[in-house]
Amino acid sequence: MASVYEVHDLVAAGKLEKAEALAREQLNKTPNDPWAWDQAGIVHEASRSYALAVGCYRHALGLFRASTEIEGIERFYNSRIDKITRRG
Questions:
Q1: Burial of 16 (0-12, 13-18, 19+ CB in 10 A)
Q2: Where residue 59 sits, what CATH number does that domain have?
Q3: How far apart are CA 33 and CA 70, in angstroms?
Q4: I want to staple 40 with a disulfide (CB 3.0 to 4.6 A). Which of 23, 62, 73, 76 is the partner?
């Protein structure tokens, strides 16, 4: 599986189609991995598909809620979601 940074690097380089394909591949391989949903959200946010990004971030947050990392993760995702929804 690709590293978390590969999708970030592709997005930063403007290679959104490749980033989307890699994020989709990660989701297909590990659909219960919150980081895979995070990657999909990053790609959708960069593509300005904000509703899809928020959906991915919320799904990632839901998966993280079952883990011990919830407090920091919840603040992180709520901050991202708030940033997107303020763009309105």
A1: middle
A2: 1.25.40.10
A3: 14
A4: 23
Per-residue pLDDT at 2: 62
Instruction: Look up residue 60 and give its two tokens.
Output: 């990632």
Single out the residue of 36, 29, 4, 6 nearest to residue 18, CA to CA.
Answer: 6
**Three-state DSSP string of the chain:** CCCHHHHHHHHHCCCHHHHHHHHHHHHHHCCCCHHHHHHHHHHHHHCCCHHHHHHHHHHHHHHHCCCCCHHHHHHHHHHHHHHHHHHC
* Residue 38 pLDDT grade (very low, low, confident, very high; cuts 50, 70, 90): very high
47 pLDDT above the threshold of 90: yes
For the chain, the domain total comes to 1
| 62, two tokens | 């839901």
How far the first Cα of the chain sits from its last, in Å, is 34
